[in-house]
Recover the amino acids of this structure.
């Protein structure tokens, strides 16, 4: 598997083949957004006409829209969309004589990815391993294990590549779950997205390994707008992981991604995220603004989509992974842990829209607030007319650490069919001094005690994550809450 | 000599209210002391102060535990030094398995002593052995700490934890209340098996029945924050028979 690493390095250090033509040698677009920038991005990526047209339509629509500032429980200064750089590829010199010439920050990034590759090496020979698509500053650097996957007919590649190589699939599914008209950020993303992952699992195939994407923002002042599209054809199964990191920066950075999932008859998609964008410092300076639209559709009968998210990063999180349960007997799940500390703000939850008969959805949300942060759950369960015997169970728990933070729950329920059974449970608790003292009395210090208690509290969600991710998530949680009590 | 715990003129309170008002007690290694006393006399407060609960403010006196100044140690260090408190009201920690909890505790205590974490198989062996000692069902050990346990199960779990952590001084705060007759005997047997020349117990109870099983070396009566009478096992019998009024009367007369 050393080969995998070589491939990654090769693509990081060498010229990008995607979208770089001789007449466009700039690697970073000038700040601001207008039709020219949209054309610039499309040209950089050597896109076919239909793709450019799509972007332009989205851009024109975006200009007519207003930023959703009022309904989310979030406070932040106005974003000047003309100050953002909408396209940035990692800079590289024509030739590199040694590693010393590489930006150390970038190297650190590779090291991070390298660790994942080491992991892959270690896992070689074991049945389950992970294929990675690495997206740095909106550009997909390399997708690993492509050949192995190709043998099964699985397509796992960068979005740009899919536009070139599988235009019929992209045309068919892109925007079918999250149209650019959906909301302000989905329109923006549709106009300027630079890359992301594409994944197609053909009929009857169980993807033999976890598919994973690592997103990373590097260059300052850039926005990151990735697009992910996952399609599981009939009787297919895939488990997909998404990891996010960004370096510490004083200014706020914008991240507005779109993820679409299509699950066909008897198919299942599990989508897990560990989101660790830079949350800003202790005083609330800097951090990523994370405005993400994630939605899946259970298109036909007996299909299933399950979202699991562990949100520890970002200055602001605005995110509602949702499922449209169209097919009869389809199942939607949402498992979420959202941690906010210091001055972080999160407004996150899900929408479950029941259309088909006997559709079922489960929502388990665990919010943890510390410091002076604000953590809101916002969820909509909607049972359409004709969605006979639809069922939903929602459980929204909030855990408060300290007295300066806030937890809020906004559950919306719309029932149009009388046969529906919808259950909602909510609890708010403070991390107990009693619990901490109990742990202390058994020899466990407060920091460790909080780790234990919080991990216990989130167990139902962590249980949904693949093993490696669960371990990472537990560590992240401990780090995020460091110094939040006592 | 082999002094384990020495409390001299301890004064402590909570929220500006003094509850422990000049408390003295000497416990030697291997001894079992019972503390009895009416509701609200300060028994649980004393346990919490000794275990180092932050809300309680010590305003005077000194406490030596194995010759160390106990009051200077953090609660976790007191535990690591061998002090164990079986709580009157054990708390629930949802999602954290008993086993994981105890493994963390044991390894923290070991780390304090400069020892490597316990091997998984040794740990499991220990769990089996101690479970048998307090006749705790296997399923309880695997469940979340005290979550959904009945009152009696919680108390039994405290004794299981005590057995696992092998403290040098164990304070049992009304571990007998809420136990049925069989459970009482099992818990008492567990404690008796753990009695040894270098382990001491402070047993807080309202009922002399427990002391039929765990026979104490001394019995003390705590009243209004201090010990007003000390004696042997017979004192407990006398209290059972006469209640506390005669002691109160004695105090007024004195
Ligand atoms: N947090 C607190 N705030 C105010 N008063 C308290 C607090 N905790 C304990 N007290 C008071 O201190 C006194 C002693 O309480 P403590 O729990 O120590 O009694 P006890 O001897 O253990 O009683 P019991 O036999 O009922 O368990 C009581 O009057 C109680 O109300
Ligand atoms: Mg008490």
């Amino acid at each position: 598997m050393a080969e995998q690493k070589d491939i990654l390095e090769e693509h990081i250090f060498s010229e990008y083949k995607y979208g770089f033509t001789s007449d466009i040698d700039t690697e970073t677009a000038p700040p601001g957004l207008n039709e020219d920038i949209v054309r610039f991005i499309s040209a950089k990526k050597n896109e076919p006409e239909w793709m450019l047209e799509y972007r332009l339509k989205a851009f024109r629509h975006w200009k007519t829209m207003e930023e959703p500032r009022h309904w989310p429980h979030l406070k932040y200064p106005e974003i000047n969309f003309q100050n953002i750089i909408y396209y940035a590829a990692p800079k590289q010199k024509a030739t590199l004589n040694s590693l010393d010439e590489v930006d150390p920050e970038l190297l650190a990034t590779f090291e991070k990815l390298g660790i994942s590759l080491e992991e892959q090496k270690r896992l070689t020979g074991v049945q389950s391993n992970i294929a990675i698509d690495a997206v740095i500053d909106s550009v997909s650097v390399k997708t690993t294990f492509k050949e192995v996957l190709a043998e099964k007919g699985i397509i796992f590649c960068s979005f740009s590549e899919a536009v070139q190589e599988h235009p019929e699939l992209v045309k068919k599914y892109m925007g079918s779950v999250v149209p650019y008209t959906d909301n302000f950020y989905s329109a923006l993303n549709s106009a300027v997205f630079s890359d992301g992952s594409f994944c197609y699992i053909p009929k009857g195939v169980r993807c033999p390994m976890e598919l994973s994407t690592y997103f990373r923002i590097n260059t300052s002042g850039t926005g990151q707008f990735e697009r992910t599209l996952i399609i599981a054809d009939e009787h297919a199964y895939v488990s997909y992981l998404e990891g996010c990191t960004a370096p510490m920066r004083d200014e706020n950075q914008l991240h507005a991604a779109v993820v679409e999932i299509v699950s066909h008859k008897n198919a299942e998609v599990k989508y897990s995220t560990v989101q660790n964008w830079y949350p800003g410092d202790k005083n609330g300076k800097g951090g990523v603004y994370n405005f993400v639209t994630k939605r899946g559709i259970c298109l036909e009968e007996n299909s299933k989509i399950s979202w699991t998210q562990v949100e520890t990063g970002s200055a602001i999180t605005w995110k509602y992974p949702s499922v449209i349960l169209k097919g009869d007997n389809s199942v939607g799940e949402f498992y979420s842990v959202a941690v906010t500390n210091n001055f972080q703000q999160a407004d996150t939850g899900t929408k479950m829209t029941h259309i088909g008969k006997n559709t079922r959805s489960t929502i388990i949300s665990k919010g943890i607030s510390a410091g002076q942060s604000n953590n809101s759950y916002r969820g909509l369960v909607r049972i359409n007319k004709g969605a006979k015997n639809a069922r939903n169970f929602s459980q929204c728990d909030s855990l408060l650490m300290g007295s300066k933070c806030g937890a809020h729950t906004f559950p919306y329920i719309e029932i149009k069919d009388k046969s529906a059974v919808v259950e909602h449970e909510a609890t708010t608790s403070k991390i107990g001094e009693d619990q901490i003292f109990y742990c202390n009395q058994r020899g466990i210090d407060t920091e460790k005690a909080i780790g234990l208690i919080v991990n216990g509290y989130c167990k139902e969600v962590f249980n949904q994550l693949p093993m490696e991710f669960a371990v990472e998530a537990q560590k992240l949680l401990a780090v995020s809450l460091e110094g939040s009590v006592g | 000599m082999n002094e384990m715990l020495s409390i001299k003129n301890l004064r402590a309170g909570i929220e500006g209210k003094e509850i422990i008002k000049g408390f003295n007690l000497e416990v030697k290694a291997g001894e079992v002391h019972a503390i009895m006393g009416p509701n609200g006399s300060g028994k649980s407060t004393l346990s919490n102060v000794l275990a180092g609960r932050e809300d309680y403010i010590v305003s005077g006196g000194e406490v030596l535990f194995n010759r160390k100044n106990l009051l200077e140690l953090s609660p976790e260090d007191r535990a690591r030094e061998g002090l164990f408190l079986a709580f009157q009201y054990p708390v629930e920690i949802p999602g954290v398995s008993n086993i994981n909890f105890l493994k963390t505790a044991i390894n923290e205590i070991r780390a304090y002593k400069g020892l490597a974490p316990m091997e998984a198989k040794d740990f499991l062996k220990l769990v089996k052995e101690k479970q048998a000692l307090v006749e705790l069902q296997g399923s309880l050990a695997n469940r979340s700490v005290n979550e959904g346990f009945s009152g009696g199960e919680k108390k039994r779990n405290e004794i299981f934890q005590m057995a696992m952590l092998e403290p040098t001084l164990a304070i049992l705060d009304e571990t007998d209340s809420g136990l049925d007759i069989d459970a009482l005997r099992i818990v008492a047997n567990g404690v008796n098996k753990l009695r040894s020349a270098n382990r001491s117990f402070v047993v807080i109870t309202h009922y002399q029945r427990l002391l039929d099983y765990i026979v104490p070396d001394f019995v003390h009566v705590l009243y209004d924050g201090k010990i007003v009478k000390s004696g042997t096992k017979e004192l407990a019998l006398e209290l059972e028979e006469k209640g506390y009024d005669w002691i109160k009367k004695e105090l007024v007369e004195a």
Observations:
- The first strand of chain B starts at residue 3 and ends at 14.
- The radius of gyration of chain B is 18 Å.
